[in-house]
User: What shape does this take?
Amino acid sequence: AQTVTQSQPEMSVQEAETVTLSCTYDTSESDYYLFWYKQPPSRQMILVIRQEAYKQQNATENRFSVNFQKAAKSFSLKISDSQLGDAAMYFCAYRSYLNSNSGYALNFGKGTSLLVTP
Amino acid sequence: DSGVTQTPKHLITATGQRVTLRCSPRSGDLSVYWYQQSLDQGLQFLIQYYNGEERAKGNILERFSAQQFPDLHSELNLSSLELGDSALYFCASSLSGDSVNEQFFGPGTRLTVL
Assistant: This one.
């Protein structure tokens, strides 16, 4: 089974600064998807960004970008110009490209709690 | 708003009881996933249905079962509840059952077992 590891239980950033959240994963598959989800205090799971493993170009969505290192099995999230509304739990997730024993379910890390200070 | 609805939002019950959680997927989505979020286990996949049929199983206990109805809504049944079953239960839906389409999450049902 694929494992996803987020080694930073908590991170803090000042408003307008940049922060990077780390994620590593373990897989024997060559094709897969990686995601970052945000879970604010409302508990709603919100997709932040997605990366297809076969694409070499790092995904970008406005202030959010990833650093995808396939060989190192690393998938970090960079948040630029941090805003108070970015404060949330962030989850890294893996999904198989092909039908595996768990179908196409998301496999989540334990999460990183991001605090944004004024 | 993701378009996925879950009822009830909160549920408080006692050990040994049985509860049913309901999920309505986004309009047009055929696949439904159930996830459990607990403090000790994190977010875990429970089970997936596609167009009424079970597609994949994750770490779902035998005391738990689910089904997807012809109108595509899904129910997750939890029986012989234990304190450790207290968690946030999410439903997610996607257009198809394969890897291409995004999963959109509902707001969750918070289950408290006393």
Observations:
- Chain A is about 0% helix and 50% strand.
- Chain A has a mean pLDDT of 92.
- The longest strand of chain A covers residues 88-96.
